Amino acid sequence: MKFKDIFSSILDIDKLEEDLKRKIERMNTQLLAKASKEELSFKDCDEFRMYYNHLVSFEKHVRLTSFDNQSFLNTCEQKIFDKVASLRKTIFTSILDTQQVADMLIKMKYLAENLSMFDQTINDEIDETLNLYKEKQGSAGIMLLTMALEKNDLGSRLISDHSCLRGEDWRKRREKMQNQDNLEYVINELTGDDVAKDILQSRYQVFRKKYDELVSTILKSFDPKTAKEPDLEVLITQTKYLVGTLSHKSETVVCSRSFREAIPELLAHIFAIWTLKNTQHYNTTRGIDAARFYLLMPHVGQVIAIFRLLGIGFQTIGRIPGIGIGYKKIISDQLVNNLVEVGTGEGKSVVMAITACVFALGGVDVNCSCYSEVLSIRDKSDFASVFTALGIEDRIEYGTFNKLCEQLINEQCNVREKVHDMIINNRGKIDKVTGSEKSQFK
Questions:
Q1: Can you give the residue range of the structural domain that contains 291?
Q2: What is the pLDDT of residues 75-111, one digit of tens each?
Q3: For 332-363, what is each residue's pLDDT tens digit?
Q4: Distances from the Cα of 327 to the Cαs of 128, 146, 202, in angstroms?
Q5: C-alpha–C-alpha distance, residues 99 and 144, integer Å
Q6: Integer Cα distance of 21 and 40 in angstroms
Q7: Are strands 366-370 and 396-400 parallel, antiparallel or unpaired?
Q8: Domain identity same for 131 and 208
Q9: pTM greater than 0.90 (yes/no)
């Protein structure tokens, strides 16, 4: 539709169209100038986004006669993609210079992050470049590249965002968490009320022996050339067999002593499934000395934290009345409400997900909540393969604290609907909720 068909005849539509064309042409010129720069500063990127988004809006909502705005957009897009292609070409012409390769990848990531309209395309290009680089340079080359990238913030984001480098990220994390793999260190550093450190230590040793046995046995029989991941059917069946039933009494969850005794072995099975569901980076490094560093494996601190959450390692010192002789008393089979502090980067997501698996396998619905919806989505995605393998994906729900609070408020009924009904019908109070109206939330 033309402006002439919209405005009344008293307006000079031709003049308005010409003015608008000049403004668009000026923006096109400015956009093209930014796209033609050899390197774009933050300010250049901001202005490019502004001009580009304005022109896209014009293209979507306005049609001017004898004016091809789309060709300008296509030209500018191509110039950006040409920059990316040039960076990729430089990578493979200087493939033996690891630092040069890292610098070019960082420049590609810079464009992806600052020109958000092209981020998917550029990130795909980075993935293809990394995969080809790995084919040519092997795992050792990727290891050196990661060391060069981690010196820079953008490089660190490259490592965490792109799967080809993520295996190295896992290995680096394991190196940095060596203290958390030291049982004696973790036990000695552990503080809290009624802690039975000897019990925690002995239970962990049971866990570790079983976990290592399960992972080692299955990896020995796994051939990545014929299968994408190990066959876990038997392991999953064994895991479910270990689970007892958790019963609810009032506001507590009660487990049998046999179930509590089986927790170390049960955790060994669940963690083994988690490890073996994430062998993609290990598969490509098999045969080198550090191959096991590319496996996702639990740290001592994570396992001990789960033990505490599940009521293992609790005892209190009592005194016999009248005599004053002290004795140790193991706390009952009821799961104790417990708060566990896990340091930054020490695996809160792992602790939460594996604990959720234990409860879900026992027939309990679980909410895993945090402040961030983005982190909740990420964590659920990271452990989805484990939840699905165990058949408990419907029992575990991830969300924010706000979402959890809303669910708790609405457990008896949908409060919004009840209030709406009260206002519409001019009532002074909300009707009593019947059993059939109660919401079924986790």
A1: 178-364
A2: 999 999 999 999 999 999 998 999 999 999 999 999 9
A3: 445 666 788 887 777 899 999 999 999 899 88
A4: 65, 54, 20
A5: 9
A6: 27
A7: parallel
A8: no
A9: no
